[in-house]
Design brief:
Keywords: Membrane, Transmembrane, Transmembrane helix. This protein is mainly α. The chain has 8 helices and no strands. Helix 1 packs antiparallel against helix 8, helix 4 packs parallel to helix 6 and helix 5 runs antiparallel to helix 6. It is globular and about 50 Å long.
Amino acid sequence: MNIKLLPISCILLVVCVNFYAIVSDLFLLENLTYILYFLIFFFFLLKKRHGFNGLMLLFQVCNILAYVARLFSGKWFVELSLVFFSIAYTAIIIESSKHIKIKNANYYMFGYLLIILGINAYFMWQHLFEIKVYLRTPLEYYFYSLFYLNLMILGITAFVYYLNSYSTKSMYFISLALCIIFSDVLKDMSLFYFKDISVEIAQSVIRLGSAFFVMLFFITKEKKLRLLNVV
């Protein structure tokens, strides 16, 4: 086998195992495949990138620990996984913020961002209000609130970074942010509202996309392709 095809073969094998786990309702195997998604791309990232980035390692470690926590069914493991996810997402928010430079601020754009922020906050509050009845304790509700607040900040940061840069790196980051947000929302849909195989497979494919785009984000250098200075 061509050595260059080995990562692709590994990913295809893990995806097939993941689909089998979803269809067969094998929760532990499903979470193991999510860990493998990120590990495979992480090892590929280490081959492509010279040197270590502390925030990159923090994201990968906390992200994997969040999936590991989901393998256990104890009282605090759900909350622990939410904390690890929040730390991981904070790491890439900080990393992307390094490349945002506020110049020639456009008040219309700031107004637009405030409207987007308000709409997202409203829908986040509505979602949290609806899932509150499914949560076991008020503490779990607070952890979910922190987690979704983190997702909202991630989405806003990706939007601002893209409009500020229009670079290849910013496109990878906004794609990463969208993959993370949609996969987590779809996962909660199947967990709290209704369990549907097609929804779970969709979130799995999107989650694979997040593992792919986080690799591209960290190996790509920032090169400005500014078309319009809107932020």
